[in-house]
Amino acid sequence: MTTEYSAKVQNPYEIAKKQLEIAADYLGLESGIRKVLMHPARELTVSFPVQMDDGSIEVYTGFRIQHNLARGPAKGGIRYHSQVSLDEVRALSMWMTWKCAVVNIPFGGAKGGVIVDPKKLSKRELEHLTRRYTTEISLLIGPETDIPAPDVNTNSQTMAWIMDTYSMHKGYSVTAVVTGKPLNIGGAEGRNEATARGCQYIIREATKLKGMDLAKSTVVVQGFGNAGAIVARLLSEDSATIVGVSDSQGGIYNPKGLDVRAVMSFKGEHGTVVGFPGAQVVSNEALLELPCDILIPAALENQLNGDNAKRVKAKIIAEAANGPTNPDADKVFFERGIMVLPDILANAGGVTVSYFEWVQDLQSFFWTEAETNNRLQQIMVRSFNDVLRLAELHKVDMRTAAYILAVGRVAEATKTRGIYP
Ligand code: GLU
Question: What is the pLDDT of residues 67-86, one digit of tens each?
Answer without folding.
Answer: 999 999 999 999 999 999 99
